[in-house]
Amino acid sequence: MAGTGRHAAEDLTARARIRDAALELFATRGVRGTTIRGVAEAAGVSPGLVQHHFGTKQGLREACDDYVMQSIRTLKSQALEEGSSDPGFLPAIVRGSEPLRRYLARALVEGSPGAARLFDDAVAMTREMMESPPPGILKPATTDLHAYTVAMASLSFGVIALHEHLSRALGADILSPEGYPRLARALVEVFVDNILSPELVERAMEAFDDLEGRPARDGGDHA
Amino acid sequence: MAGTGRHAAEDLTARARIRDAALELFATRGVRGTTIRGVAEAAGVSPGLVQHHFGTKQGLREACDDYVMQSIRTLKSQALEEGSSDPGFLPAIVRGSEPLRRYLARALVEGSPGAARLFDDAVAMTREMMESPPPGILKPATTDLHAYTVAMASLSFGVIALHEHLSRALGADILSPEGYPRLARALVEVFVDNILSPELVERAMEAFDDLEGRPARDGGDHA
DNA sequence: GTCTATATAATGATAGAC
DNA sequence: GTCTATCATTATATAGAC
Known about the structure:
The structure is a homodimer of 223-residue chains.
Chain A lengths: L13 H16 L6 H8 L3 H8 L2 H25 L8 H6 L2 H13 L2 H19 L13 H17 L1 H8 L9 H13 L5 H15 L11
The structure holds a DNA duplex (18 and 18 nucleotides).
């Protein structure tokens, strides 16, 4: 499958061209902001043909959703086969096409079933890896491994969802092969660095306990 | 200002009720998915009154944007005054109302000028803190402090943008006072933990160098 | 498969009464 | 300030020709 979306427009069937055009518009204008007419125009076909191939706008959207999520899964599998050392989804998605990434970013916030499934699968996959870590990765020291896993997934997918802001702040598209290393390096540094003093960490943990109404820990001298 | 959005609907002027209704709809259905008529119905007024107060749909959106971002800034200031130990935006936003958070999540992806400014300000604020860290926080060991800062901002705002998925995966609203501690604790653990072996970190850093076309580091024996 | 033409509904915005 | 009535535009979806 040409899952990355990198292909010449002329080589594609009308159906594929429509799907690609819809992908792009759904990503930039959102689902409701995209019109069948706009898709048809962008694909160089008539509005009637869009309906012919996908039935309704909802059908078109579902087709895009399936296509994007399947493409990303394929990219992820390829990255795994090549033995990528980076455990997250990020390296896989960086290989994808720009529209693919922007579609995912939108879908993560607009409420797409496919994006939700992708996120949940990533959590499950990360959790399995944390329970029996590969060489070079230690088992996390936490009493709540599930929350730990969710927090890690938040890091990866947050980069996707916010890539526009991150790119603007950094001055380079952080999901392009050019800009990605700079952010990735910084993310690893944040992981490795220990900028929080043990006392601060202890205080923060106690504050969280308080929020939950738990009893104070050892050394906690507050009510 | 009732920046948290916690107020009885009866106590509000029609203008405020319209704004709150629009806030809610913009957040859940997006800008293009929201209709003047829908806003009017939700606010219990006529469509004409919406136009009377805000002119156009665009004007209504800008008013919502300004209101939300200003409210969040106010919450942030309050958190700072109270000497919150948590440096990010998260603790402030957790205090806000549910619609406020969902609006921000959408705005971060839909392309809102106000959200972009908020993000950039957060980066600048975090950067200043990193350059002269408060007690308990060490200066990060990085050669790219700006990227480091952006990565940290990504963590905070990523939680907002993805809160729906995080909440689903965790089984509790992670931006409510009930669910927040569990995720926050996990985030701190991810920060503090060192689950990556030095060798793995070294390998990853070299891979990033390669992507950028930099020369190999000391000990790098690959071409 | 692909198009044009059209039915039907919804939307943003305006005008004017109360 | 608040409403109703209305216009012009635009949208989805269908029908049917080629």
